[in-house]
Design goal:
Helix content is 45%, strand content 12%. The chain contains ten helices and four strands, in the order αααβααβαααβαβα. The protein has helices spanning 8-18, 33-39, 54-64, 84-93, 99-102, 119-128, 134-149, 153-177, 190-196, 226-229, and strands at residues 76-81, 105-112, 181-185, 203-212. It has a four-stranded antiparallel sheet with strand order 1-2-4-3, sandwiched between helices. The longest helix has 25 residues, at 153-177. The two termini are 32 Å apart. 31% of the residues are buried.
C-alpha cells in the first residue's frame, strides 16, 4: 500500500471527484424505520436551487429532539445556517466542502455543557403531568444540580457530545423519511467556527450536518460484517 497522503482539504473533497454514482437519491415509497435506516446515505452533492421552508426544517428538528439524553437534560442546541452569505463564510472553515454552500441549510449541532441548569424546568413539566410527585421531582433536581454541577468540564463535554450524536442520527433519519438527504461533517475547524458564528462558551460543537435535496445518491454503504463487531455477554 502506498504511503502517499493528502491534506485535510484534499481528503474531504476528493470523495466528490471519485464518486462515479449517477443515480439520484432514491425516493422512498415506504418510510418505515428499517427502510429509512437502510436507504440513508451520506450525500455530498445537492441541488443548490432547492430551498426548504422553515416549517420543513422545524418538523425534522421536532422529530430529532425526541432522542434520549442523559438524565433527560436535552443538551442539544441547533444553529441553522440558511443564509447563503453565512454558508459562504462557513465554507473555508469546513475545508471547502461543496455541500456547505450547495445544500439548502447547514445545521450546526451543539452541546450545552450547562444543560443541567434546566433540570427544574424539565422535571417540573414531568411532575405536572403526574409522572412523579413534587417531592420526588425536588430530589431529582437537587441530585442533578449536585452531580452535574460538581462534575469536571471534560465529563460535561463528553455527555454533551454523546447526546449530540444521538440527536444528530435521529435528525438524519427524520430528514430521509421526509425525502431529504444529509451528510454529517466533523472536518471543520471548531475554534474558527465558534469565533465566526459567535457560539457561546457553554456550547460545544458536535458536528455540522448539510441538509437538502440530494443531486447524487452518494456511495453505497460498505460495512464490516456484523460478526466482526459483535460479541455476546463478555469479551
Amino acid at each position: 500500500m502506498t504511503k502517499k497522503t493528502m491534506s485535510k482539504e484534499e481528503y474531504l473533497t476528493k470523495v466528490s471527484e471519485i464518486d462515479t454514482t449517477t443515480d439520484k437519491p432514491k425516493e422512498l415509497e415506504n418510510t418505515d424505520f428499517f427502510t429509512v435506516a437502510k436507504e440513508r446515505r451520506s450525500v455530498r452533492q445537492y441541488d443548490p436551487t432547492h430551498k426548504m421552508d422553515r416549517s420543513e426544517i422545524r418538523e425534522i428538528l421536532e422529530a430529532a429532539i425526541l432522542a434520549p439524553s442523559s438524565s433527560n437534560l436535552q443538551p442539544w442546541r441547533f444553529l441553522v445556517i440558511e443564509d447563503q452569505a453565512a454558508k459562504e463564510e462557513l465554507l473555508p472553515i469546513a475545508n471547502n466542502q461543496r455541500q456547505i454552500v450547495d445544500a439548502s441549510v447547514v445545521i450546526a449541532v451543539l452541546g450545552d455543557k450547562q444543560a443541567y441548569k434546566n433540570a427544574d424546568r424539565i422535571y417540573t413539566q414531568i411532575a405536572e403531568r403526574g409522572n412523579m410527585t413534587p417531592e420526588v421531582k425536588d430530589m431529582y433536581v437537587n441530585s442533578i444540580l449536585d452531580n452535574y454541577g460538581s462534575a469536571p468540564e471534560d465529563r460535561l463535554s463528553r455527555i454533551a457530545m454523546i447526546d449530540g450524536g444521538l440527536v444528530s442520527m435521529q435528525l438524519m433519519l427524520a430528514a430521509k423519511a421526509k425525502g431529504y438527504d444529509t451528510v454529517p461533517m466533523g472536518g471543520y475547524d471548531a475554534d474558527q467556527f465558534v469565533n465566526a458564528f459567535n457560539v457561546p462558551d457553554n456550547l460545544e460543537p458536535v458536528m455540522l450536518i448539510s441538509l437538502g435535496k440530494g443531486a447524487k445518491a452518494g456511495f453505497e454503504k460498505t460495512r464490516l460484517p456484523l460478526e466482526d463487531v459483535l460479541e455476546w455477554n463478555k469479551y
